Amino acid sequence: METVLGKAERAELTVLRASIIIGSGSASFEIIRDLVEKLPVMVTPRWLNSRCQPIGIRDIMFYLSAVLDNPACFGRAFDVGGPDVLTYRQMLLGLAAERGYKRWIVTVPVLTPRLSSWWLYLVTSTTFSLAQSLVESLKNDTVCDPRKSISAVVAHECMNYRAALALAFTRIEQNEVVSSWSDALSSGTMRQNYMDAIQIPKNGMFFNRQLMPFRRPVAEVLDNIWRIGGDRGWYKTDWLWRLRGFLDKAVGGVGLRRGRRSPSRLRAGDPLDFWRVLVADKASRRLLLYAEMKLPGEAWLQFRIIDQADGSSAVEQLAAYRPRGLAGRLYWYSVLPFHGVIFKGMVKNLVQYEDNAAR
User: Fold this and answer.
1) Separation of alpha carbons 164 and 22, rounded Å
2) How does pLDDT run across 214-232, given as a tens digit for each residue?
């Protein structure tokens, strides 16, 4: 017994190494998509001529399942990739062709890795740390080594780049993106012990509470709450929300570009523009968001539908802020004049909003 307990066990791991994964929700795919859809003309660094071997996310899932509990894969590392070897320039132009866009790309030798990281961060929805990691990896070719190919152990024919793109956009258009890179807590700035923030603190806080009664069906108002942010917007002065997102992005925050995973569904942990969903409980008619924007403090935004004594219902909208030091208090008072306009109009429009497109 002592010999067995005292002997260190060595785990026989299987490692799969992939270059660019093409699929809805993949960080690398979303970055390429952002570049193509936002920039008709791109002035890009030299690493755009590096070669890679993109692989579809469906093929990745196949390999992950195939190596599971497969003795032939224990303790080994494999390179996985699709049938196409492309430069990043070819990948961008291929996505543009798939979407029917005409794009022009000019490569220049003067963009340093740091400038390239800032370029990606400002143009796309990625975080700066992810942009840095990506730029570092793009300096070199990431093509499968034939000596480490998985095909000798697991036979499988991967889809080509264009087919993987077509599948990804089909999933996006059908609102079937199951998860996204931005779902990870590391994609924002919220501390990892986020469960502590699920209940809004009561002490040392500033609050803005709005109550809006209504008599329309509760399900319709609840649906409006669940569709907030993203393409729907914030029901009042969206240009101010976009300005706040731009300022947040300019100082290294997440900005508004993450959007939301689904236009109509929310779950705990989802990113929602520069918020993180902590509670999305339709049964109790409560949605609680936690701010991941750059702030000298912590902020929450909660929506609840409550029953009134007269038989009507009301939306309770509660903005809560816990300042950090003097800077946090100065921040609250500096934005206080906007609260009366934004929060009052926001809850009113949320209750009254009619989705004519859905009719």
Assistant:
1) 6
2) 989 999 999 999 999 988 9
CA distance 320 to 299: 6
* Of 174, 181, 261, 182, nearest in space to 226 by CA: 261
Neighbours of 204 (CB within 10 A): 10
- DSSP 3-state of 91: helix
What does the alpha-carbon distance between residue 170 and residue 23 come to, in Å, rounded to a whole number? 10
Which helix H or strand E contains 323, and what residues bound it? strand 313-323
283: Cα within 13 Å, side-chain hemisphere: 0
Tens-place pLDDT, residues 86-145:
988 888 888 888 888 888 888 877 666 677 677 677 777 666 666 777 777 677 788 888
Q: Do domains 12-178 and 183-358 have the same CATH topology?
A: no
AA identity, residue 45? P
The domains of the chain are located at 12-178, 183-358
Of the CATH numbers 3.90.930.12, 3.30.530.20, 3.40.630.30, 3.40.50.970, which one belongs to the domain with range 183-358? 3.30.530.20
Assigned superfamily of 12-178: NAD(P)-binding Rossmann-like Domain (3.40.50.720)
**2: burial class by Cβ within 10 Å (0-12, 13-18, 19+)?**
exposed
How many distinct helices (H) and strands (E) make up the chain?
10, 14
Q: Is 1 exposed, middle or buried (0-12, 13-18, 19+ CB in 10 A)?
A: exposed
